């Protein structure tokens, strides 16, 4: 009798242990197994496993395999390189109602190129962009997460359609009210017609509301005053160059008195670049945590329109006829430009490469942005972000810092670090898996094995299907 009770007790204990072990088992949606995980903070690469559930990273393990975990979908990532999905930090959705569908086609091109997030820096299709943004968030449409500025803020008679025009103080508050009502993710200020005073006051007003700002800078304002007003990001390098010139104040005064134009100022500012002034400017940018968007690829593309035949570009065939039509403006201007102006533009392109490298060397945070979209000739949505990172590396910036300028810095700039930018537990599962190491060759960013957008898997085959025929 005693032996029978003992045997029964052991059996019950054994069953209890099995049940407890089963209860410990955790089931995930997806496991990325044995991949080389790139840490964008320090450039380290370690073999590990990434567990994904409900569109987020549930766990990242660098130890031995978790025997108490199971996954419905296991991806063998052995020999592959894993990093956050790419961010294009400067794109445009624009061109009017007739180009809504053409712009919508860009969304799948971004995903096909591993770009899981874009920062829309202003356009005239805000209603459509907000619809796409919501549909993507609800998984009703394939496309990148969209952070948008909505319409740009500019002065009376603004160059770009749909801009909010400010002429007096009340206009600024009204414009910001309308952007908050949309609501947009940041404020984009353009420089075609806005006065220097209204430009600075717009930044200050946005700063009081706790809004993120980025923009061009009218040459009637100085870079120092722009930084002090509270700008969060400077789009393009013209304005950085101005702030590095020993003649900035004199050039600003001539612009204010209508004695000089924007392009007239370029050779003067370039030739009066001063190392000591530049050093102070870089320190100021760094102290105020101002990001800079170099947009080197588009600058180079536009500077060489007179030499390069783009008619056989692979991505040209993916652009709708209406988009290609918008390219004509810049193309015609290039054809009708003087030889001196063409040469000046090319010299400026070379100078900007050095400027981007110097910014990076001095610890200024950069954002990788393509400036792709309608009107920007041959700067194609998707592939141009990869070309921008290539251009950064060509300028002397390390592959790690070029990669950082995409997702890592993009998330920091928009204050989205809790959800994006690194591969950590709790963050959104926007992930790209590459066949080869981009830290060794930045062109490897184009060798995409697989993409995850909010946990949804896109294989090479499914990515190819996103590219228009």
UniProtKB/TrEMBL annotation:
Superkingdom of source: Bacteria
Chain ranges of the Amidohydrolase-related domain: 81-455
Listed GO MF terms: hydrolase activity, acting on carbon-nitrogen (but not peptide) bonds
Family annotation (InterPro entries): Amidohydro-rel (IPR006680), Metal-dep_hydrolase_composite (IPR011059), Metal_Hydrolase (IPR032466), Metallo-dep_Hydrolase (IPR051781)
Pfam family, any one: Amidohydro_1
Entries under PANTHER family matching the protein: ALPHA-D-RIBOSE 1-METHYLPHOSPHONATE 5-TRIPHOSPHATE DIPHOSPHATASE
Protein name (database record): Amidohydrolase
Organism: Maribacter algicola
């Amino acid at each position: 009798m005693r032996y029978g009770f003992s045997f029964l007790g052991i059996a019950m204990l054994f069953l209890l242990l099995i049940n407890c072990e089963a209860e410990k088992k955790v089931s995930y949606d997806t496991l990325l197994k044995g991949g080389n995980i790139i840490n964008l903070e320090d450039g380290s690469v370690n073999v590990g496993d990434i567990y994904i559930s409900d569109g987020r990273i549930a766990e990242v393990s660098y130890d031995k395999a978790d025997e108490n975990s199971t996954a419905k979908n296991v991806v063998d990532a052995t020999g592959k390189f894993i990093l956050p999905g790419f961010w294009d930090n400067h794109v445009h959705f624009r061109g009017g109602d007739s180009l809504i569908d053409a712009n919508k086609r860009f969304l799948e091109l971004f995903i096909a190129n591993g770009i899981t997030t874009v920062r829309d820096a202003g356009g005239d299709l805000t209603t459509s962009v907000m619809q796409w943004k919501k549909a993507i968030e609800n998984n009703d449409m394939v496309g990148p997460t969209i952070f948008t500025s909505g319409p740009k803020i500019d002065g009376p008679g603004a160059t770009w359609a749909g801009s909010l025009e400010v002429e007096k103080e009340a206009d600024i508050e009204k414009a910001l009210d309308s952007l908050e009502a949309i609501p947009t993710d940041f404020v984009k200020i353009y420089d075609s017609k806005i006065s220097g005073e209204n430009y600075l006051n717009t930044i200050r007003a946005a700063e009081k509301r706790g809004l993120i700002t980025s923009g061009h800078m009218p040459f009637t304002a100085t870079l120092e005053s722009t930084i002090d007003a509270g700008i969060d990001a400077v789009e393009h390098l013209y304005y950085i160059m101005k702030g590095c010139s020993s003649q900035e104040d004199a050039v600003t005064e001539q612009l204010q008195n209508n004695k000089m134009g924007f392009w007239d100022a370029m050779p003067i500012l370039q030739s009066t670049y001063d190392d000591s002034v530049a050093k102070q400017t870089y320190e100021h940018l760094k102290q105020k945590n101002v990001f800079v968007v170099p947009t080197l690829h588009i600058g180079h593309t536009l500077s060489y329109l007179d030499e390069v035949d783009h008619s056989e570009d692979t991505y040209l065939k993916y652009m709708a006829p209406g988009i290609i039509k918008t390219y004509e403006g810049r193309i015609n201007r290039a054809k009708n430009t003087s030889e001196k102006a063409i040469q000046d533009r090319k010299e400026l392109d070379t100078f900007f490469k050095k400027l981007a490298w110097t910014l990076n060397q001095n610890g200024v945070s950069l954002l990788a942005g393509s400036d792709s979209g309608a009107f920007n000739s041959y700067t194609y949505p998707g592939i141009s972000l990869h070309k921008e990172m290539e251009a950064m590396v060509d300028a002397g910036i390390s592959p790690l810092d070029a990669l950082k300028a995409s997702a890592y810095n993009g998330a920091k700039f928009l204050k989205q670090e809790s959800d994006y930018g690194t591969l950590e537990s709790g963050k959104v599962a926007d992930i790209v898996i590459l066949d080869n190491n981009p830290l060794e060759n930045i062109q490897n960013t184009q060798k995409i094995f697989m993409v995850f957008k909010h946990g949804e898997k896109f294989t090479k085959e499914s990515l190819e299907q996103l590219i228009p025929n």
